[in-house]
Design goal:
By secondary structure, the protein is mainly α. It has one domain. The protein is 30% helix and 6% strand. It is built from four helices and two strands. The protein has a two-stranded antiparallel sheet. α1 packs antiparallel against α4.
């Protein structure tokens, strides 16, 4: 059966929506490919994220902190500000946008 784009996966089922690496909500029309380990720190892998999630992440962590956490989302969510943000944004639409908080570092 075709999905919204008219595509089918190999089993004839519609493909599951791609989720944000940080908040696990389905991605909307606007997405960013984020380097969990910053490129300046040798990061090559990218993950899909909502722009608001990426902005909040970089407002709360320095490049060296992001390098230490790498792909460990659970470690990032141990930060109280990030947990509060993810809990708050969980009820928002995929293309929700708001001005990010000022950098905490």
């Amino acid at each position: 059966m075709p999905n919204q784009d008219g595509d089918e996966d190999s089993d004839g089922e519609a493909a599951a929506p791609v989720e944000c690496w940080l908040c696990s909500r389905p991605l909307g029309e606007t997405t960013v490919l984020h380097h969990p380990v910053p490129k300046s720190r040798g990061g090559r892998e990218v993950v899909p994220m909502h722009p608001i999630c990426q902005q909040t992440l970089i407002a709360n962590f320095s490049n060296s902190e992001l390098q230490r956490h790498g792909l460990d989302v659970e470690a990032i969510l141990m930060n109280p500000d990030m947990r509060k943000f993810v809990d708050w944004v969980a009820k928002k639409e995929p293309d929700f946008h708001a001005a990010p908080a000022k950098k905490k570092r």
